[in-house]
Amino acid sequence: MIRLKNEKQIEGIRKSCKMLSAMYRELIPLVKPGIQTIEIDMWVRDWIKKAGGRPVFLGYTIKKKPYPAAICISVNEEVIHGIPSKRRIHDGDLVSLDCGIELDGFISDQAVSIEAGNAGETVHELNKVTLECLYRGITAVKAGDRLLQVSRAVESHAKSFGYGIVYDFCGHGTGIQLHEDPQVPNYPHGPNPKMSNGMVLAIEPMINAGTGDVRVLDDEWTVITADGKVSAHWEHTIAVFNGNTEILTDPLESYIFV
Ligand code: MF3
Ligand code: CO
Fold first, then answer.
1. Contacting residues for 22 by C-beta, under 8 A, at least 6 apart
2. Centroid of ligand 2 to alpha carbon of 221 (angstroms)
3. Cα(234) to centroid of ligand 1, in Å?
4. Which residues surround ligand 2, an ion (CB under 5 A)?
5. Is residue 61 part of a domain?
6. Nearest bound ligand to CA 168?
7. Is residue 2 part of a domain?
C-alpha cells in the first residue's frame, strides 16, 4: 500500500532530509585515504546524536541479522550495505556512503559516492554517469505519469555507457518508515502505479562498471559485484506535491567534485 503524505508530513520529512545533508557536508571532507570505515561510523553516530536525530539504519532488520552501524560504507566492488570495519580507505577507492536519519518520526535516506584521492578516469566516469542516472530518474517523476518511466530513464542512461544495472535491489517509498511501497527499480519491472501528489520516494541507482550481477557476503549484508568490478551509488529522497517534484535532500555533488 502506498502511503501518501500530507503537507505537514512532507515538512517533517524535509527537516529530516536537511539534517542528513548537513551531516554529509561535514562528513565528505573527512573521507580521505587513511581513515578507517569504522571511524566514519563513529563520527556519524556522534553527529546524529548531537543533532537530536536517530540513525535509522542502526539495528534495522530486513533479513535475519540487524544492521550493525549507522551508515553503510561500500568500497569499490562493494555495491551497497557495506558494514563499517577496520578497513582503511586507500588512494583511488570509490567510497559509497548511504545513511538515513529519523527526526521526530520522519525519515530521510541519501547516498553519495566519493572518489578518495586520485581515482582513475574509469571510476570517475562511472561515478558521474551514476549521478546523472539519479537526475534522469528524478526528472522523469511527474504526478499522473507511471512510475516505471523513472526506472526506464535510469536504465537507458546507464545502458548507453555499457554499464551494468543492479537488478536485485531498488529504490523505494520512504518518509514514515525507511522502506515503504512502491518499489522503485532501476529498470522497468513489477508494479507500475501512477505517481501522485503526496508520494515520497528514495530514488537510488546502483550502477556497475561491469556486470549488473551481484552477490551477498557471509556477513549477510555486504552486496558485491559478481565480477569484482567497481560500483557506484547515488540517492536522493524526493517528494511529489502540488504537481511538482521537490528534491528534499540537498545536492552534494559540488562538495564531492571539486
Ligand atoms: N538506502 C538503503 C536502502 O534503502 C539503506 C538501507 S541499509 C539498512 O536499502 F541497514 F538500513 F538496511
Ligand atoms: Co534507500
1. 51, 250
2. 14
3. 13
4. 109, 202
5. yes
6. 1
7. no
User: Rounded to the nearest whole angstrom, what is the distance from the C-alpha of residue 73 to the centroid of ligand 2?
Assistant: 13
CB 178 within 8 A of CB 66: no
Residue at 102 is within a domain: yes
Contact 69, 57 (CB under 8 A): yes
Find the CATH number of the domain harbouring 225. 3.90.230.10
State the total domains in the chain: 1
- Residue owning the nearest CA to atom 6 of ligand 1: 57
**pLDDT at 102 (0 to 100):** 98
Range of the domain at 128: 7-256
What would the pLDDT profile of 16-61 be if each residue is shown by its tens digit? Answer: 999 999 999 999 999 999 999 999 999 999 999 999 999 999 999 9
Q: Ligand 1: which residues within 6 Å by Cβ?
A: 57, 60, 62, 67, 72, 81, 98, 109, 111, 172, 178, 202, 235
